[in-house]
Write a structure and sequence with these properties.
The chain has 396 residues and is an alpha+beta fold. The protein folds into 3 domains: 86 residues, no CATH class; 113 residues, Butyryl-CoA Dehydrogenase, subunit A, domain 2 (Beta Barrel), CATH 2.40.110.10; 147 residues, Butyryl-CoA Dehydrogenase, subunit A, domain 3. Strands 1-4-5-8 form a 4-stranded mixed sheet. A 4-stranded antiparallel sheet has the order 2-3-7-6, with no helix packed on it. The radius of gyration is 21 Å and the shape is globular. The N and C termini lie far apart (45 Å). It binds flavin-adenine dinucleotide. The site of flavin-adenine dinucleotide has 18 residues, from strand 1 and helix 13.
């Protein structure tokens, strides 16, 4: 049987000292319940109670946003230390956190927000008091995001916002939403959009669930009916929201499927396959070994191309490349787990959906596989990423 390595690179003395500190913290802070929540994660983040608790523990330790500048609450770690930390969290089944605040909006506000916006929103992102969701997609605007039609009309010191957002992940847990809205109809479609920070308890805003394929509730419709949003909650200039949204995607995209997330699923799959080794085809173990090699390469690529840990510092095609490779690899690992588990896994998810069974291991493997199908759709589909990379190559 292929032996699975989870240690792609040798560690030197400085790494050892850092890792000892991280391991001591994880030993203390990760209770059995938190580890179970991490292990049982099938969606984009762990069960919300566990995710919130883990967020608060990381915040208390000063490690919730390691990649932010130290002046704003970052940990001052190198890219390699951040990589080692993520890998250690994955090995120890730490809960997976929702990333819209820490990974996406925070870095954008640090770079593009006003002093008042930074003072108001960054501390609440760090502490976990604010949970953010992303209001970009609409029923008529997905890959072609510039087609969006949610309208914001200026009325003195507020915009009045009306329209519908769709697929809004975590809107039902969030108290804040960053959104792209239309403020002008003339000229290029991209030039009439504005980036707003919307409070979810504003009058006229309603959230309704969209059930997922695995029976889960992760995403939502968000309906906006004449919702007042202070002009002071605009990031960037009016009609310059496209620039802000592109910047946010560049800052966040490389981290959407960090290697540690894939490693977490690969390690679990390897453990499960080892327990079933007598009844599995040898070809499945060959695939496991190939995926291990591909994951090592993905980790090396991320470390090499993102030395500062920021996608935007590298070639403009890099965020697309990393997103594409990471999400497709994630799917291949989830597919292998499903094949190893066999048809009984799908049957147990069906039994669960009919209320005939509890969530067992097989159902979880199937649910994970279904949820990971979405990874090549959200944050820009694989076709969109390939178009961006091709465009970059053609322009030289
Ligand atoms: C699990 C999940 C969570 C999501 N969370 C959020 C969220 O929190 N906030 C948010 O705003 N949105 C979210 N989305 C929406 C997501 O961003 C969109 O689904 C995505 O942008 C694709 O848009 P669409 O679904 O309208 O598909 P379409 O754009 O209609 O695409 C359909 C198919 O056509 C292909 N295609 C489209 N245009 C081209 C082209 N020019 N060249 C080649 N192929 C093309 C696409 O790749 C895709 O395969 C989420 C989606 C999912 C699945």
């Amino acid at each position: 049987m292929a032996q699975l390595r989870d240690d792609p690179s040798p560690e030197d003395d400085a790494d050892q000292a850092f890792l000892a500190e991280v391991r001591a913290f994880l030993d203390r802070a990760l209770t059995p319940d938190l580890r179970r929540a991490g292990r049982e994660t099938t969606g984009v983040h762990s069960e919300i109670g566990a995710a919130r608790l883990w967020h608060r523990r990381l915040f208390a330790r000063g490690w919730i946003a390691p990649a932010w500048p130290v002046a704003h609450g970052g940990a001052g770690w190198s890219a390699r230390q951040r990589f080692l930390f993520d890998r250690e969290c994955a090995r120890n089944d730490a809960p997976v956190l929702s990333g819209s605040g820490v990974r996406a909006l925070g870095p954008l506000l640090i770079e593009q927000g006003t002093a008042a916006q930074r003072a108001r929103y960054l501390p609440a992102i760090l502490s976990g008091a604010d949970l953010w969701c992303q209001g970009f997609s609409e029923p008529g605007a997905g890959s072609d995001l510039a087609a969006l039609s949610t309208r914001a009309v200026r009325d003195g010191e507020v915009y009045r916002v009306t329209g519908t957002k769709i697929w809004t992940t975590g809107a039902h847990h969030s108290n804040r939403m960053f959104a792209l809205v239309r403020t002008r109809d003339t000229g290029r479609r991209q030039e009439g959009l504005t980036f707003l920070l919307i409070h979810m308890d504003s009058p006229g805003l309603t959230v309704t669930p969209i059930p997922g394929l695995a029976g889960d509730h992760e995403f939502n419709h968000v309906f906006l009916d004449d919702v007042p949003v202070p002009v002071a909650h605009r990031v960037g200039a009016e009609d310059d929201g496209w620039t802000m949204a592109k910047r946010l995607m560049a800052l966040a995209r490389s981290n959407n499927t960090p290697p540690a997330l894939v490693r977490r699923v690969l390690l679990r799959t390897a453990r499960d396959m080892a327990a079933m080794r007598d009844r599995l085809e040898p070809s499945l173990f060959h695939r496991l070994a190939e995926l291990q090699v591909a994951l090592d390469a993905y980790e090396a690529l991320e470390l090499r191309t993102l030395p500062t840990g920021r996608a935007d510092a590298a070639d403009p095609a890099t965020p697309s490349m990393i997103k594409l490779i990471g999400t497709e690899l994630h799917q291949q690992v989830a597919e292998l787990a499903l094949e190893a588990e066999g048809p009984a896994a799908a049957a147990s998810l069906a039994a669960l959906a009919l209320g005939l069974a509890e969530l067992d291991h097989g159902a979880r493997v199937t649910a994970k596989h279904i949820c990971v199908r979405a990874a090549t759709i959200y944050s820009g589909t694989s076709e969109t990423q390939r178009n961006l990379i091709a465009g970059r190559l053609l322009r030289g």
